[in-house]
Design goal:
653 residues, seven-stranded antiparallel beta sheet, Hydantoinase_B, 13 helices, Hydantoinase B/oxoprolinase family protein, Oxoprolinase-like
Length: 653
């Protein structure tokens, strides 16, 4: 009976997803399948999610806050929100429009259906609403607190009008919202049929048993790892500029992600102590402090499923997980922190988990390319005068070498659910010509199981004033690392007008407006290679050089000084200013304890209060523990000239 009902629940969420895909209006939702569906308990735990269609990111979504936000409910009510702060980390950036509906059986709510679609545009300063250089969430578009989109089955037309009016593509947004409504209504219809066949109590018992079973099996899989604590550090890249004399100038510091994974007794604790404070750019990840948050647990959820493909696919998989998410860090930022490109941090967390698992398991794997970059293309249709926003290819790279198998080219587990857009569809929707779309041969890392190759996408603009907004380009400098004797994957590169006198390296691109004949070429990274030896990690020369220049214990001291002694509202600016001051003071040499102490003392911080050693993790905290905060003289350090939006095109990463 449990197996039968598990398949019936899975069929419900798959049908919800298929209905959204078939009835949606935007190319982004219809073609790339950047949307999701799930069923959750009245307490907000996911008990069914799709595996074959749509985003596989639903395990661990924190639904309780939005469920409570509009209670009590009547049959036919549907809620809507895209507000990260008001939804407790359910929403992680504004283009994700989340909707939810209570599912009634015999007059009682026994579950909720949830879905999201990624809107092609929700307003804001740039087409597609996402830009790495945003410094304020309000630059990113319309914010919708939890509101009833439908009340007792009747449309709240003002909500639909509000969403349409605040978008460059109103008809696409309205069509995608209607598709979500259709998907949610599917859930009510199908769950009613299941309850009619098997009885309400059988459905409720199966929901509880499936979550318990997933939790039990996940704990058993964690026990196959060698007990202990494993540490790994990785970075979201910053921006550096080379002067005419060859000297290096840091404009935006790298963002540090530090993980200590402790496993044992059927549990896993993810301690992110030492992770960077929230930053000024739009890469902050709003988790609501939830320890099993879907963007923290994704790599472990994938690992569970890869070990046991019969394991129930629900939020029981994250029950054995606890986490320390320091308040004010990039993983638990203050309300209002810009977040459009939060996926860059999400992918680094996955790589950190892969790095820890490589130490804890005798079946290691290498990381993938470390990015899924999306290029939105905006132009004015010359025939109709209508503003259009479409989406180019989701740009991922190769996966890492796997136990017994090489990596897969052109895709990776971190974004493998996204489908590509057929070139013919793209060319019919926007005035571009796709000149190349192929594998980037030889870009995967070497090893007994080499990493998969990245992609090459070259697009020519056929009209003037065609704007590309490229978000999420990463691993342009720090390569996907090799594992156990494997070599690192090749870094990515974005080039304007390659092979011409005007050729230019665009770095992470951001936003760029092309004229007729301009060519944009993006080459994505290859996956890391997996060796057969007992070697550690091969990060490539750029990363290893950086770690020699700024040793890990000193980086850790800087993070602790800011999170522990600076008022929370100023941490992002003070961290930026301190880092740049230390970077300038070190010059072409290395950062020493004396350089760090001098910078901290100049900022009014007490260098004696921080230690270069990682503190021992709390073995099982339920939530993040905010560090102590003092209001000293930290305000003496100002962010250097950082106002408004960052330049749309950065230098070399």
């Amino acid at each position: 009976m449990l197996e039968i009902l598990a398949h019936r629940f899975a069929a419900v969420v798959e049908e919800m997803a298929e209905n959204i895909r078939r009835t949606s209006f935007s190319i982004f939702v219809k073609q790339t399948a950047d949307f999701g569906t799930c069923l959750v308990t009245p307490d907000g735990e996911v008990f069914a999610a799709p595996r074959r269609i749509s985003g596989n990111l639903m395990i661990g979504v924190p639904a309780k806050a939005v469920i409570e936000s509009l209670a009590p409910y009547a049959p036919g009510d549907i809620g809507l929100s895209n507000d990260p702060d008001a939804t407790g980390g359910l929403v992680t950036h504004l283009p994700d429009l989340w909707a939810w509906q209570p599912l009634f059986i015999d007059g009682e709510i026994i579950a909720y259906a949830l879905s999201f679609v990624h809107s092609s545009d929700i307003g804001g300063s740039v087409p597609s609403s996402i830009d790495w250089g945003h410094t304020d969430m309000h630059q990113e578009g319309l914010l919708i607190p939890p509101v009833r989109m439908l009340t007792a089955g009747e449309r709240n037309q003002a909500v639909f009008d509000l969403v349409a009016r605040n978008s460059r593509v109103p008809s696409q947004n309205l069509g995608d919202l209607e598709a979500q409504v259709a998907g949610l209504r599917t859930a009510q219809r199908r769950l009613s049929e299941i309850a009619e066949s098997y009885g309400k109590s059988a459905v409720e018992d199966a929901i509880a048993d499936l979550i318990d079973t997933a939790s039990f099996k996940a704990s058993a899989l964690l026990d196959t790892l060698t007990p202990g604590s494993y540490e790994f550090v990785d970075y979201v890249e910053g921006i550096e500029r080379l002067e005419a004399d060859g000297s290096r100038v840091t404009e935006v510091p790298p963002t540090r992600l530090a993980l200590r994974l402790t496993v044992g007794e059927g549990r896993a604790h993810l301690d992110f102590d030492g992770t960077s404070p929230q930053v000024l750019e739009a890469i902050n990840l709003h988790t609501g402090g939830e320890p099993g948050h879907y963007m923290l647990a994704f790599a472990l959820v994938n690992w569970f499923y890869s070990q046991d493909q019969q394991i129930p696919y629900n939020s029981g998989l994250v029950r054995p997980l606890t986490a320390n998410l320091p308040a004010g860090s990039i993983l638990n930022p203050r309300p209002g922190a810009p977040c459009g490109v939060r996926a860059a941090v999400f992918f680094r967390i996955m790589d950190c988990v892969v790095g820890c698992l490589a130490q804890a398991s005798d079946r290691a794997m290498a990381p993938g390319a470390g990015l899924v970059a999306i290029a939105s293309i905006a132009h004015v249709d010359l025939a109709s005068g209508e503003r259009k926003v479409s989406v180019g290819q989701p740009l991922t790279g190769g996966s890492g070498g796997r136990p017994g198998q090489p990596g897969i080219s052109g895709t990776s587990y971190m974004g493998g659910w996204l489908r590509n857009v057929p070139n013919e569809v793209l060319e019919s929707d926007v005035p571009v010509l796709v000149e190349e779309y192929k594998y980037r041969r030889g870009s995967g890392g070497s090893g007994s199981q080499p990493g998969g190759d990245g992609l090459v996408v070259q697009i020519r603009s056929l009209e003037d004033d065609v704007t590309f907004v490229v978000r999420g380009l990463e691993r342009l400098f720090y390569q996907p690392f090799g594992v156990a004797g494997g070599g690192p994957g090749a870094p990515g590169i974005a080039t304007l007008n390659p092979g011409t006198p005007g050729e230019r390296n665009l770095g992470r691109v951001g936003s760029i407006t092309l004229k007729a004949g301009d060519v944009l070429r993006v080459e994505t990274p290859g996956g890391g290679g997996l060796g057969s030896g007992a070697g550690g990690f091969d990060f490539g020369e750029a990363r290893e050089s950086y770690d020699r220049r700024f040793p890990q214990p000193l980086q850790n001291q800087l993070v602790h000084a800011v999170l522990g002694q600076v008022p929370s509202a100023r941490q992002a600016a003070v961290y930026r200013a301190l880092y740049l001051r230390i970077d300038r003071a070190a010059g072409d040499g290395v950062v020493t304890q004396a350089v760090l102490d001098e910078a901290l003392e100049a900022a009014g911080l007490d260098a004696a209060r921080v230690s270069g050693e990682m503190p021992v993790a709390d073995p099982a905290p339920d939530k993040a523990h905010p560090p102590g905060e003092t209001r000293g003289e930290a305000a003496k350090v100002e962010a250097p000239g950082r106002t408004g939006t960052a330049p749309s095109i950065g230098g070399t990463a």
